[in-house]
Fold this protein.
Amino acid sequence: MAMIELINVSKNLGGKQVLDHMGLTVEEGETKVIIGRSGVGKSVTLKHIVRLLEPDEGNVRVEGRDVLALHGRELNELHMEIGLVFQGGALFDSLTVGENVGFILREHMNMAQSEIDKRVKESLALVGLYDVELYMPADLSGGMKKRVALARAICTRPKIILYDEPTTGVDPITADAINQLIDELHDKLKVTSIVVTHDMRSAYKVADRIAMLYEGKIIAEGTPDEIRYSHNPYVHQFITGAAHGPITDGQNSVSTNAG
Amino acid sequence: MFLLRKTFYMALGAKVLSLVHFIGGIVSLGLQAVVLIPARPLGGGRIFEQAKKVGVDSLPIVALVSFFIGVILALQTAYIMQKMSSEIYIASIVAVSLTRELGPVITALIVAGRSGAGITAELGTMAVTEQVDALVTLGSNPIKYLVVPRFLSMTFMLPILTLFANAIGIFGGYLIGVYHLSIRSSLYMNMTFGTLVYKDLFTGLVKTIVFGMIIALVACYEGLNVRGGAEGVGKATTMSVVNTFIMIIAADCFFTALFYFFVK
């Protein structure tokens, strides 16, 4: 059984058809990278999985459960199983790093403070941060914020981690460290992951499979090597970062094979 | 001419629709907040923290302004009363005006400008930086976590602040009456508290409870619905203050009429 399934999902936002009968399947334990240009609907796809957005048409399933049919406690349980790392970190400004990371434990789990502190320390250590619990988010660099956001997402030891542009806005060395971290978490926590990015270095490094989103649909999917050597002109233009090609020329004939 | 009239009616229709949408949004947010009050975790710490921000931190400015209002009211009343040699009634006029009308309204407007704008800016920034979305993914309902503490603290703290404002305003009037107009202190006090009846205080405080709800709900609604980054936060903050002011004055007019005709 697939861990995450988006079946024929369509979403119109502000008059723009962002997702158009889009289908995506992620198997258990797999790290799937979704690539595509900015504004193509990658983050919108992630938001459907945690039901921050609801599709106009189609279905979203997580471990076989229809996400749209979940309410109240069931929806909360789903959120406990999924960690979402937001693009800008989305750390709560008014809380310390420790309070941010342990937020879900403090609010929703009947745990002693000492136990919460221990789990917070462990989660921060997993992302390579030590003794930062008392810092405020405003005191952290961009890279550290991303790590703290990641620590917050893994604090409940989720089965699924969704990363929204994890390497955007950080220097190449920090970006590589984050990629390594995604790989390590995948190995240590045995999680299923979706990474949304337009950074191809990152995509090749962390992906088991890569899917390219274009005009609301997945137009190509394959292993990193299949994508790297794809003959699909859309994929080729995107991964080589060419200014001219079918994507920018607005051609509409889209092949659906990575080939 | 026909085209002009058509455009006018379309613009009017759009305004009415947006007003209905706004009022509907506020009422819906209020109902959700009330339903979620008993939901766990109760968030006592957050309510206490908000009560401090709204109440204790607003006290100096509310005290200062209400003191000046008391002084101004006494001086303006003295201008007329001296002509009629009725300075003695200044105490009663200051007390009744403050407890029934000026205390509640001025306090509400100060808190709307100070705390209401702050709430919109804070929640708006949280919305545009995806912190509100993060709350949802961390299993918390943003209305329970963000709106309920602000709604409760505003509803409870505004009447308390108004009581302080009334007392300080009366004190301002007392200083003018006793030290400038040479009214005997005991007489001034008698004329103040002899005139005031339970109804004056009650009607004033009932209004402030409603004003508190309006400030919290409009501020939270505008903040949570911010779109478009820093510019959006700025616009929402302005709209929050403007809409709250209008709604407070409208509610004041409604309650004044209601109490005038139905509470004898």
The longest helix of chain B spans residues 90-128. Chain B has a mean pLDDT of 91. Chain B touches chain A at residues 41, 125-126, 129-131, 133-134, 136-140 (CB under 8 Å).
